[in-house]
Amino acid sequence: DVQLQASGGGLVQPGGSLRLSCAASGFTFDDYAIGWFRQAPGKEREGVSCISSSEDITFYEDSVKGRFTISRDNAKNTVYLQMSSLAPEDTGVYYCAIGGRMLVTIAQAMGAMSEVYCDYWGQGTLVTVSS
Fold this sequence. Notes:
mainly beta, four-stranded antiparallel β-sheet
């Protein structure tokens, strides 16, 4: 079975850092792009960042550009999201999702990620940024 396990969330003060992990199993990991999305309380889920299967193409939503870094270790079937300079508006449940090649291509072309290009989702990990 395809599984995505997001972890690494927690409570952090504004200006702090966290590293999220997305561990995958049940499919050929390095054939697929991976995306991170988040859902703040009372809001719709939104894209955060995504990375191509071969690690050479990344995309960041404007709200996190320069503060978040996405990476992947295909040997460990894991994608990471290093988050720094966190702000209260970064609070939410963070999800990782499997995407086809179009996930990153369309995000770069349109300037925004779309869930339409994601096939499977992990269970999410909660990030709370508060003093």
